[in-house]
Design brief:
48% of the residues lie in helices and 12% in strands. The chain is α+β, with helices and mostly antiparallel strands. It has a domain of 164 residues: NADH Oxidase (3-Layer(aba) Sandwich), CATH 3.40.109.
Length: 247
């Protein structure tokens, strides 16, 4: 409980390497995660090679930890392996649809969190890289991902070279609904986000971006519509080229 309640995202790492035994133990913990039908529709790409990390870095918006972390993991939805097994055993199936893309994404996400908890339990620091979905086509080429394999998230792993502050979270009653979803009144919304807006880091964030409030920073600077549409279009084209059908 202590480990979970004190999670910190670590972006700076020592030069110390992660031994093969420790990494294997972490990945073994990862694949013990729950998954749909015990099909394990995922693959893990382990990147240690500095040259390969340098190739990946631009597609993660040049975040320094991609090169500095001793290990970068790319967690993928993988239907390629399962389809080949089915084909070799004389059966036909089709998982190129929204249902199985979401199912595989959930399984890959659960796997990823198991990996992160195992890593932190052994004294390592972790950082999720959401940037992978922005540049999934380019990252797929760097990692030679075949048809049926879609990158879902990346994780940097290493021994921490910092002790960052614990990131704020919304209060529990903001996200927990008892028995049925209780929609939010305007007053409750303002109350839920008030502590986040009062943080000095939030105020600085607003000032640096020349906005009036924190919501504007999120909606008009960090995750603005034009960027969302552009990167969504790239991802949709990749999925369409892979044969996914969403009708």
């Amino acid at each position: 409980m202590d480990l979970l309640l004190n999670h910190r995202t670590v972006r700076k790492y020592q030069s110390k390497d992660i031994s093969a035994d420790i990494l294997t133990e972490i990945l073994e913990c990862g694949i013990r995660a729950s998954n749909t039908g015990n099909m394990q529709l995922y693959s893990i790409i382990v990147t240690r090679d500095p040259v390969k990390k340098e190739l990946l870095e631009p597609f993660h918006f040049n975040q320094p930890m991609v090169k500095n972390a001793p290990v970068v993991l790319t967690i993928c939805y993988d239907m390629n392996r399962f389809l080949k097994w089915c084909s070799l055993n004389g059966t036909k199936t089709d998982f190129s649809n929204l249902l199985w893309l979401l199912t595989g994404t959930v399984d890959a996400s659960i796997l990823s969190q198991n990996i992160c908890i195992a890593a932190e339990n052994l004294g390592l620091g972790i950082c999720y890289l959401g940037t992978i979905l922005y540049n999934a086509p380019e990252i797929s080429k760097v990692l030679c991902l075949p048809k049926g394999v879609i990158p879902i998230t990346s994780i940097t792993l290493g021994y921490p070279d910092q002790v960052p502050e614990i990131t704020d979270r919304l209060p529990l009653d903001a996200v927990v609904h008892l028995e049925e979803y209780e929609d939010y009144s305007d007053d409750r919304i303002q109350s839920i986000y008030s502590d986040k807006e009062k943080l000095e880091s939030s105020k600085q964030f607003v000032q640096e971006n020349g906005m009036e409030n924190l919501a504007q920073v999120y909606a008009e600077v960090r995750y603005k519509s034009v960027d969302n549409l552009y990167f969504s279009g790239k991802l949709l084209k990749m999925l369409t080229d892979q044969g996914f059908v969403f009708e």
